[in-house]
Amino acid sequence: MSEPLLKVEGLKKYFPIKGGLLGKVSETVRAVDGVSFSVNEGETLGIVGESGCGKSTTGRMAMRLIEPTAGKVFFEGKDILNLSKSEMRRTRKDIQMIFQDPFASLNPRQTVGRIIEEPMIVHHMGNSSERRKRVDELLELVGLSAYYAKRYPHQFSGGQRQRIGIARALAVRPKLIIADEPVSALDVSVQSQVLNLLQDLQKRFNLTYIFIAHDLSVVRHISNRVAVMYLGKIVEISDSERLYDHPEHPYTKALLSAVPIPDPDNKTNRIILKGDVPSPAHPPAGCPFHDRCPVAMDICAKEVPVLKKTEDGRLVSCHLYD
Amino acid sequence: MLSYSIKRLLMLIPVLIGMTLIVFGIIHAIPGNPAQTILGTKATPEAIHNLNQALGLDQPWYIQYFTYLKNIFSGNLGTSIQDNMPIAREIWPHLAATIELSFVAMVIAVVVGINAGIISAWKQNSALDYSAMILALIGVSMPIFWLGLLEQWLFSVKLNWLPSIGRLDIVSTVRPITNLYLIDTLIEGQFSQFWMVVRHLILPAIALATIPTAIIARMTRSSMLEVLKSDYIRTTKAKGERMGLIVYKYALKNAFIPILTVIGLQTGLMLGGAILTETIFGWPGIGLYVYNAIQYRDYPVIQSGILVIAFLFVMVNFVTDLLYGLIDPRIKYR
Amino acid sequence: MPQSEQNTAVQPAEEEKGPFVRNLLEFWKSFRKNKPAIVGAVIVLFFILMAAFAGFIAPQGINDQNINIRLQPPSASHWLGTDDFGRDILSRIIYGSRLSLRVGFFAVIGSIIVGTLLGVAAGYFGKFIDTVISRFFDILLAFPSILLSIAIVAVLGPSLNNALVAIAIVNVPVFGRLVRARVLTVKEEEYIMAARSIGMGNTRIIFNHILPNSFAPIIVQGTLNIATAILDAAGLGFLGMGAQPPQPEWGTMLSSSRQYITNAPWTVLFPGLAIILVVVGFNLMGDGLRDALDPRMKN
Amino acid sequence: MADSILEVKDLRTSFFTDDGEVPAVDGITFSVKEGEILGLVGESGCGKSVTSLSIMGLLPSPPGKIVGGQILYKGEDISHAKESRMRKLRGNDIAMIFQEPMTSLNPVFTIGEQLTEAIRLHKKMPKKDLEARAVDLLKMVGLPRARELLKEYPHELSGGMRQRVMIAIAMSCDPKVLIADEPTTALDVTIQAQILDLMAKLNRETHTAIILITHDLGVVAQVCKRVVVMYAGKVVEQGDVRDIFNHPEHPYTEGLIRSIPDLFSKKDTLYTIKGSVPKPGSIKKGCLFAPRCPYVMDKCRTAEPELTGDRHKSRCFLHREDA
């Protein structure tokens, strides 16, 4: 097997909360607590989890928009956390991001043309007329017309804005695209349009995706491999077929069973989890999931399970598979 | 709550130090020789030398500053050049006069302003709303010294209803206990005196209250409109609560947080802004005290007067901050 | 409001205009609907024209004295009456608009320039720079504004220009804090994250993204602050700490006329009305601009 | 129908803006039977929330206004009822929960104060019983530490807990109808499962009819008995949940169902409905779905189909003999 395009090792992000009289660090929020994975060229890695599980932070650290507290990020074999500011800026050309909120991620005071052109200006690509031409191409590519370039973002619907965001990400011909909840703000009928577009573009340009989302059905649809996160940790990671058909981690099982299926004849027994996700400032000792786990054992409260290969080759972090 | 208060109090320290630096700097920013400026061109070199020594101006500036700080902490606000009296002793009656006037004006502003704002928001776009907001607009745009002059002209000169100058009729005196005459007259049980004090307060208090009333009314209206649009008020409506109760019992508590900010700010500004009202109505408050000092170039009085007012201003804002905690349960956790 | 793919098509004629012009048109569309704002704009324009053409409009010069006609009530020859030197009050008010507008505009422009620089620095770079600048604002704001301007004038000496400087200094933290808060908000917007994600540097982010998005609130606050600056200048003039007689500054005019209020109330009435009118104008216009420029009000 | 507790007949609600009248709800008819769970589905801007606010008499007015039709509660038309009458019904007979549990509770009042408010308004209950009732309600919605919770403020609770409190408030006067407007949209999927489970349980135990407004067809399929599908302010299809999902008649319903990615199997490309929802009032003639419809016929562009059918109704020419 060749070198993975992106490899992340032991990534951590702790946010200190200051409090008390002298602004001492009173608590530490462990937003991401030791995450490792790799993504191969041309594939899509899905990262799923509920709000606060650290999936967005992970995505942002993978392209160093947030500085990790600890860990390593290798892009094409080199550790990007050691790069200087200017080297990092150059590397950004190869890694682009698509954001969740199509309303907030476009500067309201710039025209669409300018928004899409900007990455090319930053990376000194082409002259002004070449860039203009590329903007028109990109707009057509994502299914909008070239004459939209003169408009402002607020003149577009949510789905159209997300297409503009995609065009911006494609402008510098990146290798890796990190998509952070790219369809969760969209209506179902528009969501499927955008998903198809993303898949189509992936085939055409041999793109690699990290697709972060909370919607399990969407992630299954688009991903080759899927990582499930809970409280800043990956609890299970494997190719999506196996993960969805035979989930192993109790959390993955519960998560999958909680998804409402759009079929009135399929009313399988749900696993209803007790309580809420604990605060990442006070994660439970031992396995972070043990206080809600329907099959928790004594050991779960004491020892933190590690991500291990199970018999069929996937990685699960659960004492059941010790 | 306690830790929050202490934290806020600690945060005041740099502000207070900065404040003393600025006030201390006033005398040093005077172009040329301050003593010369204070005494005028005809002053003898000897007098200038003496004043320089009296003010400590012949020392290096940091020594002067530490002496200044030490004096302030020991309650020594300096000596007035005009009458050679210790300012700390002289200042209290003036301060009391200003506090009395500002307090009455603030009560007027809060009562009128909040109610006008609430009704405007409740009956949004009604004739009532429009007239209240036009009045409020004129209120914030009004030079209060002009309003004061017109009040005097109309109510004192033309109609002869109310006195226009001072805290008391010329012939009467009130034995100063607290120097807050409203309280002093009541302690002494002299109700006719009390009435006289009230009559003297009316015109200046209205003039001083105009701008805060208008600002509070505008802030209440916009804050209230925002709250009335909120999801939780919709929830309350969905329970079948009546509008009057929703507005006064529920929404007001939410809307009050920004209003409180404005009240705190305006109370402080009043202490400073009273200088205009006080010069017009001959109100012997701290504003007039500073104003007269400026005329006489009595810099120690100018410095201490400004310092005392600024200190009060900061304290009022500090108390306002603490009051948030009583209204908004979320604040304790910040 | 949901928008459809087809229905957002802008008319071709409009499409040909540059984005800036279309932005302006759109702003004008929402501003026009706001009747009070139009009234405010008309008042402001009225005073600007008056100041510009004072020499042509004013029936008499600023200091044309005539002891024979002192303290005359309004009449056909002196619409607003005359003052204690027999000067035409209308003419003095017309010339006075120059002084008030000058103080208003330049004081506010001064505070905007200094305040924006400090505010951007504090908001964008944060940490130590932010602490120092923010404390500085806190300290300036710890003084009631009129008192601080009086103190500054007491040091610099009373004159209209010193009053202008004092008012400008006092308002620096107002804009500084506004810009800082705006920068902090904009900095958290996803499009700034997006700008960083395409590899953009700090300077470019500040100038291309943050400043343009902080522009609207500065304009709004600036307009409103012209109103308070004019009021404060008049107040200082009234206390004898701003413009000096015989300059026809409205506050100064009020101050020199107050002793005649009983016999000649018009000498006090009209300068005061002029202040109210121009201040109302700026306030209305500022509120209107806020409604038209505030993105929260816009769908 | 005798057992209908709430009937909406040809309801039309418009917003009056500077650009003229915008019809948000344009002649919708449906009924809610006692004790059932009815799903009201559609994408954003289809008028489903406006419908619920119209029923509650909580439309922001101006600019919103009911311009036609009836809303019958137990046979009484409440579409233009006096405010005093509506106040008696709200919270007592018809209750509502909202999408955003984070903002729907007043941050400066305790859970207890907010929970007992509707009871104090509508039921005469001695003070000492009030607290017991509040505790019972919190237990009913599955909240632990009920007695302490009464003294806590909303910001101390998680989103899921707040939504439970909202449900407790809504159920506090045993309403006949509960309108739930996207009650789980803001929640995580495991919490959503808890809340849906709770609502189904309450429906079984109290016989309160629930109108569940949502954009999520999965939620509808799991909890609703009958479904009303809305598009651009109109009902395009309604019927039994099985009929709707297994034999959708309207191309829009069909498209919606088919464009959801499947959790159990991976398809190559997703089905899509081209274009997006039209602006209210922008299509003047013909079927509102015609510009996006894969089966569009000439007729669809000129005439608007009626909502026809018996138990399974739809608004489409495709299933009409005269087409």
Describe the structure in your own words:
The complex is a heterotetramer of chains A (322), B (334), C (299) and D (323). With 322 residues, chain A is of the alpha/beta class. Chain A has a single domain, classed as Rossmann fold. Chain A has helices at 55-62, 85-91, 112-122, 128-141, 158-170, 188-205, 216-222, 240-245, 250-258; strands spanning 6-19, 24-39, 44-48, 70-75, 78-79, 95-98, 176-180, 208-213, 225-230, 233-239, 308-309, 315-316. An eight-stranded mixed beta sheet of chain A has the order 6-7-8-3-9-10-12-11, with helices on both faces. By secondary structure, chain C is an all-alpha fold. The longest helix of chain C is centred in the middle third of the chain and has 37 residues, at 89-125. Chain D is of the alpha/beta class and 323 residues long. Chain D is 32% helix and 23% strand. A seven-stranded mixed beta sheet of chain D has the order 6-7-8-3-9-10-11, sandwiched between helices. In chain D, strands 2-1-4-5 form a four-stranded antiparallel beta sheet. The radius of gyration of chain D is 21 Å and the shape is globular. Classes of the chains: A alpha/beta (322), B mainly alpha (334), C mainly alpha (299), D alpha/beta (323). At the A-D interface, α6, α7, α8 and α9 of A face α7, α8, α9 and α10 of D.
Briefly, what is this?
Chain B has 334 residues and is mainly α.
Kindly list the characteristics that best describe this protein.
heterotetramer, B: 334 residues, mainly alpha, MetI-like fold, 13 helices, 76% helix, C: mainly alpha, elongated
Shape of chain D: globular
Tell me the strand order in the biggest sheet of chain D. Answer: 6-7-8-3-9-10-11
Helix content class of chain A: 25-40%
CATH class of chain A: Alpha Beta
The CATH superfamily name of the largest domain in chain D is P-loop containing nucleotide triphosphate hydrolases
The succession of helices and strands of chain A, N to C, reads EEEHEEHEHHHEHEHEEHHEE
